[in-house]
Amino acid sequence: MQHFKDLNISQEAKKTLSILGFETLTPIQDGVIPAILEGRDLIAQAQTGSGKTLAFALPLIEKITPQQQLPQALIIAPTRELCEQIASVIKSISIHKANLKVVTLYGGVPLRGQSASLEKGADIIIGTAGRLNDHLFRKTLILDNIKTLILDEADRMLDMGFYDDIIKITSSLTKKPQSLLFSATYPENIDKLARAILKDPLTVQTETKHKAKIDEFAYEVKNKDEAVLTILQSYKPSSVVIFCNTKVQTDELSDFLLDNDFDVATLHGDFDQRDRNESLLQFSNGSFPVLVATDVASRGLDIDNIEMIINYDIPHKKETYTHRIGRTARAGKDGIAVSLFARRSKEIIEEIMPNASIGSLDSLKADKNFAIQGKFRTIHIDGGKRDKLRKGDILGTLCKELGMDPNDIGQIVVTDKASYAAIRKHTAKNTLKALQKTTIKKRKFRVWMLG
Question: Could you list the pLDDT tens digit for every one of the 451 residues in the chain?
């Protein structure tokens, strides 16, 4: 088993990884990190949750020299959520590289602010294909010094119809960079993209060491809302993601579950970036353990404890189904995927999910008193990294100033402009009132409850 301390990387990088608790490499990391360090182009097939982001982020950081005039690395990803997750990993493992600047570029955020960030310089650009092309058209993004190109979740980008956008971006590169293509599945059009971008690539395919099992079921139903309720009250998961095909269905199902006392977060394309981030945050920190979403959440949702996936609507493609159910059975845990279908859709079920067992709702035993409730509530603090706030500052205020039991404090997340603290539900209101009357680092911040 390969250890990070044995890699041909700097001592500073090894120390950072040790502090963060990284010791042994996952199969995909073992397979690609040495090759990337050697400068090889490669195609890597690995599932989400296999450690692939660290697999390309670590050698990338080793190659970067901060504070150059132009970006040295470009990472293209399918969704804004995945862009932010990649940026978070890079920032966490690059604390030994002073002044390394990462800029994310995606839709739903004003171009002007992104252009201002680019004017100040960037070492690594992470973006979605559409927004990257917007900046290239406006000449606010210059890619003349790109040495490393990474396509993450390339299959998803092709599925979303971004082939031409990706080619337009790569054609704008004045120098041939080292190019890395990561994909969870390997559809036919991946070959076409690989031939256009990669040179003599190494191909790496891995399976996770402890391959978790997903039990797949499909139920023929007439009333989907009631069917979802029956399934939840029978299986009794502690956390679940329910996928709908449209925004309207997402909102309507969320309202139905809220009326039945479930703690629900909602996510779809009409949400602005802050609302998206806060919905995902409240789901991941245990405030709202039910997430009803469109396929905006089928990729880039990096949460290990999702017990169940429900397909309220059958996806149109088998690849989409694979990505949806891949949100469960992570970190070595098994998962359950349940799909609902009408009688006329039975042939589609056999085509898209051939491994699913067809069941009857009559066989389930629902506990009518059961509802999934969050253990926490999330307090929003109107200050973040730009205000020099750290997790320790917030934790210190909660414990030392307010006298809270540490067991009543959950996940604390600090972003550039805001911070979020998950507080046990039974004490959340009193904590909020106390925080409104106290200071953090001798400063008064506005605070309120999300949800």
Answer: 588 988 999 999 999 999 888 889 999 999 999 999 999 999 998 776 778 999 999 999 999 999 887 999 999 998 888 899 899 999 999 988 888 999 999 988 899 999 999 999 999 999 999 999 999 999 999 999 999 999 999 988 887 788 999 999 999 998 899 999 998 877 777 888 999 999 999 999 876 444 568 999 999 999 999 999 999 999 999 999 999 999 999 999 999 999 999 999 999 988 888 898 899 999 999 999 999 999 876 655 667 789 999 999 999 888 889 889 988 877 667 899 999 998 877 778 888 999 999 989 999 999 999 999 999 999 999 999 899 998 889 998 998 889 998 889 999 999 889 999 999 999 999 999 999 999 999 999 999 999 8
Q: List strands edge to edge, sheet with 419-424.
A: 409-414, 419-424, 376-381, 447-449
Alpha-carbon gap, residue 112 to 326, rounded angstroms: 36
Q: Which CATH architecture has domain 4-205?
A: 3-Layer(aba) Sandwich (3.40)
Per-domain boundaries in the chain? 4-205, 214-363, 376-449
Q: In Å, how far are 54, 156, 368, 446 from 252, measured between CA atoms?
A: 38, 27, 21, 32
CATH class in words for 214-363: alpha beta
What is the CATH superfamily name and number for domain 376-449?
Answer: RRM (RNA recognition motif) domain (3.30.70.330)
- Output the pTM of the full model: 0.63
The CA distances from residue 258 to 264, 292, 445, in Å, are: 6, 11, 31
